Amino acid sequence: MSPSQPPVDIKAAEDRLMRYLAVEGVSGEEKAIAEAIVADLKALGVPADAIRFDDAHKRIPLPTQTGNLFASLPGTKKGPRMVFATHLDTVPLCAGAKPKREGGKIMPQGKTALGGDNRTGCAVLVTLAETLIKKQLPHPPITLVFTVREESGLQGAKYMDAKLLEGGAMCFNVDAKLPAELVIGAVGAEKWEAEIHGKASHAGVAPEKGISSTLVGSIALAEAHRNGWWGKVVKPEGKGTSNAGIFGGKPGKAAGDATNVVTDYVYIRGETRSLDTKFATKITAGYEAAFRFAAEQVKDSDGAKAEVKFKGAPEYPSFNIAADSPAVKHAIRAAESLGFTPSTMLSNGGLDANWFVAHGLPTVTFGAGQHDIHTVNEFVDLAEYADGCRMAVALATLEG
Length: 400
Hints:
alpha+beta
């Protein structure tokens, strides 16, 4: 297959990305960027009644300004419906971001992240609509999906109204680095939390009368590490990762009030991940056992022990699409049609694709030039972004 170049207006695509990068929209505050996208879609000729929001924000357990945004493009040829997806939100480090062009990159002007994750995806999807409409390219029915709160636990995709996916046969999610790196699977994750109720006492006068929650928590984490449940987890029955990310006290407070008081309360929160959802649960169980063990090791002078309350819960499921599935084969052919050398890979981070697959929609994720995401060194490579736009058009218009 000889390489082809879809007729994408690259200057318009770059200008669109610059505009979107300047629109603030951290997780839960996606209304402004959603409105900008709706205005652009309408200006391109997408009818108002083909653009709609679901009510996922009413089900998401965190304050969220708006639901997920959907737009339908009628097919100009017969074929199974395709879904193209991305997310609207950025991480908090992007608050106040101002983009600037520097050579072949877009970078933040100040000490913020840029928001290329995922303003690139937003711009790619609108550029796809622009190219299909203005160039009158033949394509099957298409649904564009812009989710909310991806960066805070894939909440928009989890709680979306799946009926608005309109029975799509396959989905292509723009949320990675390179157009030819096709993500076909990702880990599932669980969240866990432990509350340790000890007993305060004067640490100088009568430390033996106290039960240190700090000590219990420290022993628990050391025990999890000793048993191989901490960090990179490799067991005969599976592989995964884990982390204890928060070691604190009551909401907004440190663990403990003073150095001369035995700490009576500690709160610890962490996560576990694995490509095998059942193994992620097993890692969580390893942490619970470690906390139960630790509670038995710390006693006051009367033999009393700390009370440990441990809770673990799934956050999102893992997935792994077969390499010979129609969605993967279509993505490979589209990449090859552009002269790329595609590769398939698995992600150790969660994606909206985790939930799209759980909703019954096979999903392949590809990139559009976002680099060093979630850091102040973030940038978008404009050549790769242009290739991401071309990849979306190739996916939508490829025959067969």
